[in-house]
Design a protein that fits this description.
Elements lengths: L2 H27 L1 H10 L5 H21 L3 H19 L8 H27 L6 H4 L11
């Protein structure tokens, strides 16, 4: 794998990881606001889901960032995204064209993140990752 492709994969992982790490930290820093938003979407067992989601976002986001168990972290975050996309960005249920359009943008943004996570889960972390150094057969000739 050439240097430019490896650098692109690293930057892509950093960008996607930042979304989850900051989102998880934001949940911990604004428990009341996050709880109210979750309640407005009809969610139950809010404390459990809030703390579980925040912890997952931070830990899996950090794993993605440093490239540790990268494929598993990406797959876990992708699975986490499925109910979020459908529950929190159901643009088809929103009244009014402006609000519906805004919600559709959020839906498509999350769908793109989901796609990026599936891509990482499929091809791996790239050259610049802890995963590359944790395998017995790690050498300079490895492709990913």
């Amino acid at each position: 794998m050439n240097h430019l492709a490896s650098l692109g994969m690293l930057l892509g992982r950093i960008a996607i990881a930042a979304i989850f790490i900051l989102s998880g930290l934001g949940k911990f820093m604004d428990v009341e606001g996050t709880s109210a938003y979750m309640a407005s979407k009809g969610l139950t067992m809010i404390p459990f889901f809030l703390y579980a989601a925040a912890t997952l976002e931070i830990l899996a986001g950090l794993a993605l960032l440093i490239g540790f168990k990268t494929r598993w972290a990406a797959l876990l975050l992708a699975l986490f995204m499925i109910p979020l996309i459908l529950l929190f960005h159901a643009f088809w249920e929103v009244e009014g064209p402006v609000a519906r359009a805004a919600e559709m943008v959020a839906f498509l943004k999350d769908l793109a993140i989901f796609g990026g996570l599936l891509y990482i889960a499929s091809v791996g972390p790239g050259k610049y990752a802890l995963d590359r150094c944790c395998h017995k057969n790690c050498d300079s000739k490895s492709k990913v």
